[in-house]
Amino acid sequence: MSAAPLRRVARVVLLDPEDRVLLLHGHEPDDPGDDWWFTPGGGLEGDETHEEAALRELAEETGVTDVELGPVLWRRTCSFPFDGRRWDQDEWYYLARTAQTTTVAAGLTELERRSVAGARWWTCRELAGAHETVYPTRLAELLRRLLDEGPPAAPEVLDTEIV
Fold first, then answer.
1. Over the stretch 60-91, which tens digit does the pLDDT of each residue have?
2. How far apart are CA 150 and CA 144, in angstroms?
């Protein structure tokens, strides 16, 4: 029996004019105390490209549509338990910039409505000092390098994360 294929996911590292990154605050649907922060994004639907999925998910989860989608920064394979099942994902992280800092999560799925508590813009310094769980776990370091050096010439493959 072969393992299920990895769920193909597009995520967005969305920066505002002050270089703050937008993160969503998620939690287990039945346990708000089991929480974390993560970048907007989600699974590809149908024959969508990663770019199309990134823009669709960003609009659904944040209402932000005025974006300039940049290159793929990072790729990551991850596996984690959520809502009673294990999710195995191949995630592509896109850089995007926007001047639109007001967010409205009007397009959430039923599961997202039960598990996303809001959104917040974070500075690199705030991320580096955060005691909350953030995914990917090295986001503060990755963001600092992105801001200092610009996007990598080719997507950086991050360590596999298994939670």
1. 999 999 999 999 999 999 998 788 888 899 99
2. 10
